[in-house]
Amino acid sequence: MKFFQSLGSKFTLAFTILGLGPLILMGITALTFITLTHRQDIGTMEMQLLRQKTREIDEFIEETIGLFEIHANVSGKFVPDQDREFLLVELLEENSFIIEASFISLEGKELFSIDRGQETVSKLSRIQDTSLLQPSNVSRLPKFTVAAKGERYFGPIYQTRSGPMMTIAAPFYNNQGEIIMVLTGEISLLPISKIVAISNLGAEGYLYLIDQTGTVIASSDNKYIFQNLQYADWIKQLLAGQIHDGQAATDKRLGLVSAEVLAAGVPLAKYGWALVVEWPTADAFAIVSTVRSQVMAFSALTILVVAILGWLIGRKVLQPLSMLKQGARKIGSGEFDYQIKVETGDEIQELGEVFNRMGQDLKKLEELKAAMIRAEALAESLRKERELSRMRVEFLSNTSHQLRTPMSIANWNFDLVARAKTDDERAKYLKDLDLGLKQLNAIITDLMVVSEFGVGFRNAVWKEVKIDELLKKVVAARKPQLDEKKIVYEEALSGKPIVIGHPAIQVVLENLMDNAITYTKDRIKVGGKIEGSDIHLVVEDNGIGILEKDQASIFTQFFRGENAISKKNVGTGLGLLICKNIIEGHGGKIWFESTENQGTKFHVLLPLKPKEVS
């Protein structure tokens, strides 16, 4: 277990876990999604096949029954025998699956019939003569009673040696639209058997058609024909008119193949039939099993690659940390010329360069502090100069204090990181170290700005700009922060050109916007209007506000409000001092209104054209 006591091994383990965690989660999610969507796709494919086959069956029967719906070109109720014979012969010749056809009078007596099994036409006399062959009376049969009312009739399916058959009937009309006879026929359902037989899904899916008794009358696998399923609740629901779309839990059932299947079915209500498709689950989900195996193989390879990368990265990252620690100690002890040489090409190298710059800046500040002290002694005779020197000394003293404190914290946290026993402790100390370094960077940056816009600043370069365009540039650079904190930004500014020191006024807008973004809850509003020869700018937020006891010191160097410090964000207490120096250097004014926990409104009043330009 000694391997896991080193920082490098712990980094490798953490990197592997953090790297693979999301990957494994995404893999599981993807497989679950594929399984669920594939189940839906199976149901969709089954329903598409059922709709297609239902349409083909309907087309065959509609085409056949359509031949029986005849409007004869006669005005009365009598059709000559030769015409009846001609119509029946024509009917059988037009459709080879019509086996027999007959005319029945409105009294229910069979008048004339023909079938394919006879070489001659069998004719029944219309004359009611007891010496002649009496026609059959079918007045009580459904095929007559339904058709005589003007409706189509589809009879039950029955089996013959040549295949399934069905009786159909339709009314026979004269040219006045009156029913004068009933035309019935026996049709072969072999085309329907063929429609069903050529249907399949995947390698093992099959289709079958059942009649009103629940008997299989056609199937893509002939071994299931004549099998009766009427006692199955699922089949009963189909015959009762319920559609099964293959998506319900009950649609996963034991199929005709005596294995679990995903089934779907549609009723053919006007015939009393139902069409069913069953796809064995193992065959239907074969592609998902293949994908699952590929994902597992890929995951295993990824684990190996991530573990190796974690070890290599950990070794590369941790080695320079000791160099940074040593350099921080030396710079913190006052050896500002010490240079940290880290060449990693990443953020750690940038951190080392920040340390080096910080050391040089601290050296310059120390030298500047000594020079200012000497200048104060030489300017004793001038009150204003003495005051300025005093302020500079105070500024440098505060600066030195502000820099030494985070340096000491960074030093301390480097030691704590090295001595940390758990990853949680190490993460906490690294977080504190990062915050301290950011504070150092912010102080150094603000010091650079203060060196340009310090006490007594007077602008030397003037430029005519549109303040609204300048603000848009400042806001555009901060859009990621606005989006991240979901801040609603509102702007209402005059587009009138004004003469300002540039980039000095841009620095003011940047500082005020940065403060607003840092401390607001969810809204920032910037407004501006012309007031005589001045422009009045307002930057307003709805944040934590400024405590009443802190308001008198808000423009003091290195001062930060108590509630601002409690937020533990990076800040130097120099931003508002810089703003005040710049605004007063333009002959303007800056002030604020603030209420705790309600927000702060900063006001800036600038002349449209400074006196120096006039």
Would you give an account of this structure?
By secondary structure, the chain is α+β, with helices and mostly antiparallel strands. The chain folds into four domains: 5-62 and 199-284, PAS domain (Beta-Lactamase, 2-Layer Sandwich), CATH 3.30.450.20; 69-186, PAS domain (Beta-Lactamase, 2-Layer Sandwich); 294-452, no CATH class; 462-607, Heat Shock Protein 90, CATH 3.30.565. Helix content is 48%, strand content 20%. A six-stranded antiparallel β-sheet has the order 3-2-1-6-5-4, sandwiched between helices. Strand 9 and strand 10 form a beta hairpin. The longest helix has 62 residues, at 7-68. It is elongated and about 150 Å long. The chain starts with 6 loop residues before the first helix and ends in a 7-residue tail after the last strand. Residues 118-133 have low confidence and may be disordered.
